[in-house]
Amino acid sequence: MKFTLANIETASGASAAIVVGHKVIEIAPVTGRDQDRSMLALMSDWQTNLPRLEAVADKVNGSGIPLASAKLLAPITDPGAIFCTGANYSDHAAEMAARHGQPAPPDPRTLGVRSWHFIKTMHCITGPDAAVPIHPRSKKVDWEAELAVVIGRKAFQVPESEAMDYVLGYTIANDLSARDLGRREQLPVSSSFRQDWTSHKNWDGACPLGPWIVLARDVPNPHNLSIVLDVNGAVKQDSNTSKMIFSINEQIADLSRNLTLWPGDIILTGTPAGVGAGRDEFLKKGDLIRIKIEQIGELVNTII
């Protein structure tokens, strides 16, 4: 039976659950295993645990709590790593170049360049429908709708041809960015110390994630999904994952060349055109952000 993975709020904290249709079933009470409360524990031996979860889904028979009544948290609250792929949509790369009066950049492959990544910490993660505090020092907080990939197997030096076998599933992320803190303008352009990716990309709540994880087997082609973001009902980003420069396969291969990817690690695969920086428009308190990705679902958050 088809199901998605979610974390729900319970009296004793976050607990892993499955969503079947419009019902949510907390896993641990059904299996009798307290360790099944942890999403990372389930993912750590996914090949063994998947059949157990399928058995739980088959036994639902209308039980569980209504989805509308459940408090969904981020589907992974404590990943080992959140890798973010930079400048990975052709339309976004052209948009950001135009912002600086430059022509659209060439395909990086022609320059011998592979995908590149920066990191957000798990402290940035918040869930669906959560209120996200605006950056305490930034006046230019921007949105970035992204397809997020969840790793399901230990991966080291994985070839591109096998990389998709290491994907457990997909969710939605908003790579919130403080555009005015990415560079220390007091330093010259030539300075090696001018960039500040930590302030630019990391603060409490800067990585909304959710609402659940759709299993990879239920997304036949993640490289052809509509991705749309609106702010207060006005569409800002409207693109397709087919515009990724480096595929998910390539991103996993490139990351795993240097280090081991572990179950539960997350890769944010880049954002398309339509970010606020391209039009000098930024988020403010009270804004409602809605991201929809085809076959995955909808992630909604409010800026406070």
The total tally of domains equals 2
Largest sheet: 12 strands, mixed
Mean pLDDT reading: 95
Q: Tell me the strand percentage band.
A: 25-35%
Instruction: Give the helix level as a range of percent.
Output: 10-25%
Question: Which geometry do the CA atoms define?
Answer: globular
Global Rg: 19 Å
Gap from first CA to last CA: 39 Å
So how many helices?
6
**What's the helix-strand series?**
EEEHHHEEEHEEEEEEEHEEEHEEE
Number of strands: 19
According to CATH, the homologous superfamily of the largest domain is Fumarylacetoacetase-like, C-terminal domain
Give the class-level CATH name of the largest domain.
Alpha Beta
Low-confidence stretches: none
The CATH topology label of the largest domain is Fumarylacetoacetate hydrolase, domain 2
What this model shows, in words?
- This protein has six helices and 19 strands.
- Strands 1, 2, 3, 4, 5, 6, 7, 8, 11, 12, 14 and 17 form a twelve-stranded mixed β-sheet that branches.
- The chain starts with a strand and ends with a strand.
- A hairpin with a 2-residue loop joins strand 1 and strand 2.
- The chain has two domains: 4-73, no CATH class; 82-303, Fumarylacetoacetate hydrolase, domain 2.
- The protein has helices at residues 27-31, 39-44, 46-58, 90-99, 197-201, 248-256, and strands at 4-10, 13-20, 23-26, 65-66, 72-73, 82-85, 117-120, 125-126, 131-132, 141-142, 145-151, 167-174, 177-178, 207-215, 226-231, 234-240, 266-268, 288-293, 297-303.
- With 304 residues, the chain is an alpha+beta fold.
